[in-house]
Fold:
Amino acid sequence: MATVIIPTPLRKFTDQQASVKLDAETVQAAIDRLIELYPVLAQHLLDKEGQVRAFVRIFLEDEDILALDGPNTALKSDSTLSIIPAIAGGIDL
Amino acid sequence: MANIEFSKAELERYSRHIIIPEFNIAGQRKLKAAKVLVVGSGGLGSPLLLYLAAAGVGHIGIVDYDRVDDSNLQRQVLFGTESIGQLKAEAAKARIEALNPHIEVSVYNEFLNSENALDIVKGYDVVADGTDNFPTRYLVNDACVILGKTNVYASIYRFEGQVSVFNYKDEAGNLGPHYRDLFPSPPPPGLVPSCSEGGVLGVLPGIIGSLQALEVIKVITGVGEPLVGRLYLFDALTFSHRTLKIWKNPNTPEITELIDYEQFCGVEEAKEEQPVAAVPSISVQELKQWQEESRVFVLIDVRESYEQEIVDIGGQLIPKGEIEQQLDQIPKTGDVVLHCRSGKRSADVIELLQAQYGYTNLLNLEGGILAYAKEVDQELATY
Structure:
């Protein structure tokens, strides 16, 4: 099973899970499955066209998926995907 | 560089640098000759400025328009209780000059914007970005790209930190990626953590800002491998860290001029969309009068329980996120006043209850508990 690491700002949409294990053969399938599990993630992760938003990057191990095959990048059973959002401080009350 | 000289006092002060074989007097000379601009003297800026000053960076610039507030002191270790109310840049200057009298410090008590950024940044070799908002992050990045300056970046959120070195040109002339290669555009304001989700563990900016100071020193001295083309991530909760490779996007548009960053980040639009004025409201003075008259009304606090621990004006706690599950607690007749910290969340709740559940008797406390603490009861704590 692939592991998806969820960043702090999105953990409130994954029942505070810091990582989620799921079965998926490609990055796209993993994202689809993640959103199936936690539907409210969709609006934070994807734009209206269903593309990953520009302030979120997806990494397979230590490589940006855009440097690989993008959403079609194949996953292995022990792959680790990281979702990395832009953060700017978050202490602005 | 050989013409950079040190006094006896400086040699003694910096001796623990000079006796590191890889660093030695050559590294110390480079530090003394360097000009570093630190943007933001808050949580990240505190360790940055302290360590850069202590290390002997010859000229340090500080940009900050803000004043020290008591809620800063939990993490902004540059300042003490006596600094409350002072301009941060001035208080920071005094602190680091006391730490090291052999350095020069310039202050810019102003908000960095598209009009002044290039003029300020151009006088420095390296910029360290310790700001806390997206418009300034993109502004700092773009100014560094236009002027060919290295941007040592760090950012934090609650328990998590990011560090990288952007726009760094190595000795062979290869230019590393910059912030827009990683994040081409910012999150829309609605998706940025709101005030109820703010907060940061005080020691986290201490850790991340120290890493940022480390990278500034490495960039200046050429010692070690700077964090170029890589993004370092630290999660304090799990004590885990990762270093990811940043992809230099060949399609990143060329940056040729500074733009309106508030507009780019959607901040202006978000301000206009604020529904505060659109819902019926009551001022804190009126609320006080109602309380003194013992008038019958219901007061509901839509903040989180941990916020009520700081300050409470007797409202019934129903956090914003639980409102729809607790509608039976909110009467549809009689006066019902809703409040939060500043009036934004309670206005959102009223808008929702009016539109979705047919409420017509709800009033928003203008300015929230902050305004109440300021105008009605100065004994109350603010945050």
